[in-house]
Amino acid sequence: MADWIREPLHDGWAQALRADEMLYDSATDHQRLRVFSNPRFGRVLTLDDVVQTTEGDNFIYHEMMTHVPILAHGAARQVCIVGGGDGGMAREVLKHRRVEKVTMVEIDAAVVDFSKRYLPMLSKGAFDDPRLELVIADGAGFMRDTAGGFDVIIVDSTDPAGPGEVLFSDTFYGHAKRALSPGGILVTQNGVPFMQGAELTNTMRAFKPLFADATCYLATVPTYAGGPMAFGWGTDGDARTLPLAELAARFAASGLEPGYYTPEVHLAAFALPGYVRRLMP
Ligand code: SAM
């Protein structure tokens, strides 16, 4: 009989995914890593039993964390991804032809190795792109020491527990801000506010004194269950106030063919419901 993998993420509420076939199950130095196949979502990657990404719905998360800041910026050449070991984020960033270099800082080499083998449909060759530099290191230490110059920094972290916890600290955000080029944009994954409100509040509290424009935007990803998920947005530039016509022109010129992102969705994603606004300091 097939197992149901229960995600131990929220107090008093859980989602479960049926694992018809367990393709991989092993503990790395950092976390327990599993891949299984599910009839609705295809291959599913979990770290410590928390869903990280699925073959079926990853496009929503990856498109919204890449195309929103990169198209809003308009001239991003240097991009940094913190985390992102499955390669899905690099896949979407590298679709932007003007991006010259992607520095991806992932703490766990095992996630990369094993994603290449069991989840090649996520990276789609991104690890072989000469524009990608993979650094196996703690993202917090990297950000403290880097010379920076990034036009866009994307924090594709696990939730704030285990190795991912430091990526939600004020110190890390301060170092990330310093590593941005003028007009640069920092985006972060901030969980599902209905379920993990404190995560968003803490990030926004840290962003407010750091950035002239500090807010979040939303997208609904089925396996990050419990409502729309939030992405932190911090910049000193005015990229968020771009008119639709300009954004649409950039999008048309990009040649992208996304499954979720459209310029209209991009702008609408910054419209926040009351309960999310109230979580923002
Ligand atoms: N989108 C997923 C989610 O929110 O459920 C997370 C994606 S997964 C690619 C996150 C990656 O962050 C994992 O590969 C993990 O190893 C990596 N990670 C966790 N802590 C890190 C740290 N301190 N520095 C760099 N990478 C880290």
UniProtKB/TrEMBL annotation:
Pathway: Amine and polyamine biosynthesis; spermidine biosynthesis; spermidine from putrescine: step 1/1. The active site is at residue 156. It comes from the Bacteria. InterPro entries: PABS (IPR030374), SAM-dependent_MTases_sf (IPR029063), Spermi_synthase (IPR001045), Spermidine_synt_N (IPR035246), Spermidine_synt_N_sf (IPR037163). Keywords: Polyamine biosynthesis, Spermidine biosynthesis, Transferase. PROSITE patterns: PABS_2. GO terms for biological process: spermidine biosynthetic process. S-methyl-5'-thioadenosine binds at residues 31, 106, 138-139, 163. The keyword rRNA processing does not apply. One of its GO terms (molecular function) is spermidine synthase activity. Spermidine binds at residues 62, 86, 156-159. Residues 2-236 form the PABS domain. Its EC number is 2.5.1.16. One of its GO terms (cellular component) is cytosol. Transmembrane segments: none annotated. It catalyses: S-adenosyl 3-(methylsulfanyl)propylamine + putrescine = S-methyl-5'-thioadenosine + spermidine + H(+). Belongs to the spermidine/spermine synthase family. Catalyzes the irreversible transfer of a propylamine group from the amino donor S-adenosylmethioninamine (decarboxy-AdoMet) to putrescine (1,4-diaminobutane) to yield spermidine. NCBIfam families: PRK00811.1 (NF002010), speE (TIGR00417). Homodimer or homotetramer. PANTHER family: SPERMIDINE SYNTHASE (PTHR11558:SF11), SPERMIDINE/SPERMINE SYNTHASE (PTHR11558). This is Polyamine aminopropyltransferase.
